[in-house]
Amino acid sequence: MERWKIIERVPAPAFASVYGPLTGMRVLCNGTINAAPFAATMLSDFGAEVIQIERPNIGDPGRGQAPQVVNEGKAISAVFIQNGRNRLSFTLNTNLNYPESKEIFLSLIKNVDVWIENMVWIGKLGITDEMLLEVNPKLIICHVSGFGRPQFGGDPEICNKPSYDPIGQAESGSMFLNGFPEPQPVLRSGAFINDYITAIFAAFGIVAAYVNVQNTGQGQVIDVSQAESGARILDDAFSAWINAGWLKKRNGNKVPVFQPGNTYKTKDGKYGLVGAYGRDVYERCLKSMNIDVEKFPYLEAGCSQEAVNSPLGRELERRVEEFVTSHDSHYLYENFKNFNVPFATARNAQEIYEDPHWHGRNNFVKYVDETLGKEVEAFGIAPKMSKTPGQVWRGAPTLGQDTAAILSRLLGYSDDEIAALKGKGIID
After folding, report:
1. Is the bond into 13 cis (omega within 30 degrees of 0)?
2. Where are the beta strands (DSSP E) in 278-427?
3. pLDDT, tens digit (0-9, with 9 covering 90-100), for 368-384
């Protein structure tokens, strides 16, 4: 029986709580570390009901990533505690060459608004965009890959290259801009920032396509590339090169086009960042350090790459460094605050967590992790919304925790039918 042809969509949410502006959206995600599933997590933080398809007996590799959090012999990764929340876990062998898998998968497609994947090899699994849109013409399909899909253009050989976060950082151009000038090497970001940036672009594309579905009733395909997502946020790197022949290079922590704008080690061993963009802030900044503004005019010492690199600009840089390195970070914070000048010290996660401001903003939330069976705490919801705020309705599920419930309540499988699927490598 081709169940997917006759079943009716069950309105969302069928399992999640009702909250946020995306209530009513249901997302199916075939994705692992990190970009595709984090896009789904972002949507779930604001009300979308997310079903995460995981490989039977294996699950998302993110579950085993270090560091692990352990409780009474049970362990789960710290990243999965935070990013696996608000999801339903559904185990399925997504190889549509198996009739049972095809029946289940297409029935799920009939019941969702969005399908996100980063498997790349979907053709080998018998999955095509055309087939899915025929099953559900309103479906939003979001492909996440390193270099995009050849259906949207480009060299197919490059499109089919494997990728992960550092590869995306390198290929996008962002790694070339990270670090200090030659002969120092390029640096990757310590966080998997390219994955998360890609996820943000994916989530934005999905929401834009969802609005279009509401207006036109037509689904579509979204192609999100790690390399292109990373390239898009490089400020003016491409327009500067294309239109002015200016190739941006590594400058360490120094801002090359204005000053004060650099990082210095303070007297108490912190790393203090001073940033003064624009004439008014520049003049307030110099006054806060008792530096004569008339001796160092903005146009001659602070407003451009030429000014920064001039003899006067270099002398100003020396004076700023001398001031910052001779004071401790608390003094600098208060001093620059009194003059309304941007200043910060580079802080780690512990220092941020211990700052009452961050708790006053409700940036940390507690919930029960399903694997550990105990309350955990993680970073909360961003951005904040006044009328339809996001929330965490459940912790990250155990592998396959919701398989039977989804088969039954969403797809109409009986207990006997579910039992008959077991032991075949389809759902377990």
Report:
1. yes
2. 343-345, 364-369, 374-379
3. 999 999 999 999 999 99
